[in-house]
Design brief:
It is a single chain. The chain is built from 10 helices and 12 strands. It is an alpha+beta fold. It folds into 2 domains: about 190 residues, Ribonuclease H-like superfamily/Ribonuclease H (Nucleotidyltransferase, domain 5, 2-Layer Sandwich), CATH 3.30.420; about 120 residues, no CATH class. Strands 3-2-1-4-5-6 form a 6-stranded mixed beta sheet. It has a 6-stranded antiparallel beta sheet with strand order 7-8-12-11-10-9, covered by helices on one side. Helix 5 packs parallel to helix 7 and helix 6 crosses helix 7. It is globular, with a radius of gyration of 23 Å. The termini are far apart.
């Protein structure tokens, strides 16, 4: 399998007044990529500037970071032409897309949609988030996310070209990925999923098991109420033995966006469920649910959060009823 290590640079409006801001908030101005084979050899590269169609003035932050002048971009090719060449360049052997972080694939697909191009996929795209893999492989805190230059310095990789251009950042990301493959190959099992295009139906929903947790990505629902009424969404199953479990702590939310529960497996112990409600188009939503094994102490902490959430709801109801009495 080849690894296509992709990086994009994009520009945005300085005023926010253009009609296209809502459908194209970030206009891609450069595509850079490295192709690694399964022996981690760089076998090909891609680098092209894109002539802007929407934003013809460089945003001050973009200009400061990537050092591209608008006159350079005007010599580039239109996005559809460059994107088609990039996708053709990717073809050949089976490949896995790789990026530093999670932002590039949604923006690539948003730009493709703006120009009426065929979508990359009709559902979620599995990819390697090298930033996340660096954390898993080398950091103690699983939530920390380092910038690319930090990773290059930490791994003592030579810095032989400047950062903050699409090709150079793809080049350095490929260097980090190569080191991970050589030193920490087990981390490659931690796939990420780009959900610019959600699962279309129940059959195409994503359910994937990792070393320490399971992730479920649902199809779209009309609204949050419909999502939370779905049996698969609110189910509690042990991802190791696949048995349906009785909940010790029923689903609750401290903030209206994240929902938690605790179930118990006689064989494997306590499991925490976490539901995140994500917005789709309009009022529609989809769900990302994770299930992981936890300790008794962690289960007790969740029970305390549940009790605190209950108390907060009581206080809100009292305040609201007090306001109603004052107004009557």
């Amino acid at each position: 399998m080849n690894y296509i290590v992709l990086d994009l640079e994009w520009n945005q409006s300085n005023t926010g007044l253009e009609a296209e801001v809502e459908t194209l908030p970030f206009e891609i101005i450069e595509i850079g990529a490295i192709k690694l084979n399964d022996a981690c050899v760089m076998v090909s590269e891609f680098s092209e500037l894109i002539c802007p169609k929407v934003y013809h003035e460089m945003h001050h932050i973009t200009s400061r970071l990537i050092h591209i002048q608008m006159r350079e971009l005007e010599r580039g090719k239109p996005f559809p032409e460059v994107a088609e060449r990039f996708l053709e360049w990717c073809k050949g052997d089976e490949y896995r897309l790789c990026t530093w972080g999670v932002l590039d694939l949604p923006e690539l697909q948003r730009n493709m949609k703006f120009y009426g191009m065929e979508p990359l996929s009709d559902g979620p795209i599995p990819f390697l988030d090298v930033q996340k893999l660096f954390t898993i492989g080398y950091e103690e805190d699983p939530k920390v996310r380092r910038n690319l230059e930090y990773a290059i310095d930490a791994l003592q990789i030579e810095k032989d070209i400047p950062f903050h251009r699409a090709f150079s950042d793809a080049y350095y990301t490929a260097k980090v990925l190569t080191r991970l493959i050589q030193d920490k190959p087990e981390v490659l099992g931690n796939l990420s999923y780009d959900v610019y295009n959600r699962p279309k139906d129940r059959k195409s929903e994503i359910k994937v098991q990792f070393d320490t947790y399971e992730k479920y990505i649902s199809r779209e629902f009309q609204d949050k109420a419909e999502a939370l009424a779905d049996r698969e969404v609110i189910s509690s199953k042990c991802y190791l033995c696949h048995r349906n479990l009785k909940k010790r702590i029923k689903w609750f939310t401290p903030n209206g966006r994240h929902y938690y529960c605790v179930a118990y497996c006689e064989k494997h112990g306590y499991l925490k469920g976490k539901i995140r409600i994500r917005k789709a188009e309009g009022e529609r939503v989809y769900v990302v649910k994770t299930t992981k094994l936890i300790t008794q102490e962690e289960a007790d902490e969740i029970a305390q959060r549940r009790n605190h959430a209950k108390e907060m709801r009581k206080h809100r109801k009292k305040r609201e009823s007090g306001k109603e009495e004052q107004g009557s």
